[in-house]
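WARN retry 2 of 3 for item q-0093 after timeout on previous attempt; input resubmitted unchanged.
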Amino acid sequence: MSVKHSLLAVLAGGDRYGYQLRAEFEERTGATWPLNIGQVYTTLNRLERDGLVEPAGQDAANHVFYRITVAGRAELFAWFARPVTRAERPRDELAVKLALAVTVAGVDVAAIVHGQRKHALAALQDYTRVKARLDAGELAAALVLESMIFQCEAEIRWLDHVQARVLRHAQQGRATGPADQTGTGAGRGDSAPANATKEGKTT
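OK item q-0093 returned
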């Protein structure tokens, strides 16, 4: 997530001070990515240094307001115009963890998949509950929550695939790595695909 561009997007709607920026950002995104106020002010300092925002006076409570500059608005719309590349996204830690798990002796891959699926299902239920509480006009927050719901659903489907893939590997008598040599890897997941499908249908 680009805090820099997020703050510019909020400032495009009018002058704000730090706490207002944080509150409005969280309101627009359904409070799914809380911002640290220190991070907000650090980013504002950098934006001002780079000429993308400028001070816009103070109120009676000494809140310092900021306004987006012409350069800042150009930077914001250039950001909107650029696709988010795969390289800009953080590494998929879950994929890396499972890739390594099947190569390490003594690792229970089925247990990792099961635990991750439980977590994804719980997150899916939480996001769905929060979305149900939104007002019809809260489009921005709804879009963010729907994105997270789709990610959870995709993760659950992928975990089902992983479970089946590891099991098929074991049934074909192939070694996926040192974990198979202990009998604690794919072998323990023999009954898990059926459970996984059942859990998935509850959503």
